[in-house]
Design goal:
alpha/beta, binds zinc ion
């Protein structure tokens, strides 16, 4: 089943509580982008807001760290168990340490990869401790960009590697996702999508979310 996580970046920033209350029963959880202005040239949410959204939702959250130093931010997360924490393999991290931080908090460890990074780079880090892989389908940093279809080629390569090495990790896609892409995304066996403008650019958020589900 494809799980949908509204990404709050394009939501009404002055009414985030209302956005969360409205959509919580209609989605699998919220996707929160944490940026530091260095790893990507933008700033949106921080751990304080991510923790507040997590408390307001009955679902586990999906945190997407676009930061140079993921450990600093993970230390400040107080999410409920089973939340997903995606950190970029292009950032700086001590692999053993970051995994122990995530697991101690009973969260799922997720490797995120930028569109231009080769999928084979993930193989340096995949092991049984990794629960999830986030394949970015736009350059990280901004919502409202156009989907990059070439990233879809990474999915079967990753699935094949996992099969060969008896690893099981779910796959997420984030960026530029519109309803017309959903059949192909489902066919490829993607588990989670994060979507922002295709939900929050519409007055009727629930209807927009349902369009993604169909
Ligand atoms: C981009 C973020 C995405 C973004 C998606 O760096 O990671 O989560 O909010 O926005 P849309 O769906 O508008 O591309
Ligand atoms: Zn994201």
């Amino acid at each position: 089943m494809l799980r949908i996580f509204p990404s709050l970046m394009a939501a009404d920033q002055l009414h985030l509580g209302q956005e969360v209350a409205l959509l919580d029963a209609h989605c699998s959880g919220f996707h929160l982008d944490i940026m530091d202005g260095h790893f990507v040239p933008n700033i949106i949410f921080g751990p304080v807001l991510a923790n507040a959204v997590d408390r307001a939702s009955r679902n586990p959250s999906w945190i997407h760290l676009m930061v140079d130093n993921p450990s600093f931010f993970i230390e400040r997360l107080t999410l409920k168990a089973k939340g997903i924490v995606s950190f970029h393999i292009e950032s700086n991290f001590d692999f053993q340490y970051i995994i122990s931080q995530i697991k101690e908090k009973k969260l799922q460890a997720s490797l995120a990869i930028k569109p231009k990074t080769r999928v084979e780079k993930l193989f340096d880090f995949l092991n049984p401790m990794i629960d999830h892989v986030l394949i970015m389908s736009v350059e990280p940093g901004f919502s409202g960009q156009k989907f990059l279809p070439e990233v879809l080629q990474k999915i079967p390569v990753l699935q094949e590697y996992c099969r060969e090495h008896q690893l099981s990790c779910s796959i997420g896609l984030d960026g530029g996702i519109v309803p017309a892409l959903i059949p192909e995304i489902k066919r490829l066996g993607v588990d989670h999508i994060a979507a922002s403008s295709s939900i929050f650019n519409y007055d009727d958020r629930i209807e927009a979310l349902e369009r993604l589900r169909e």
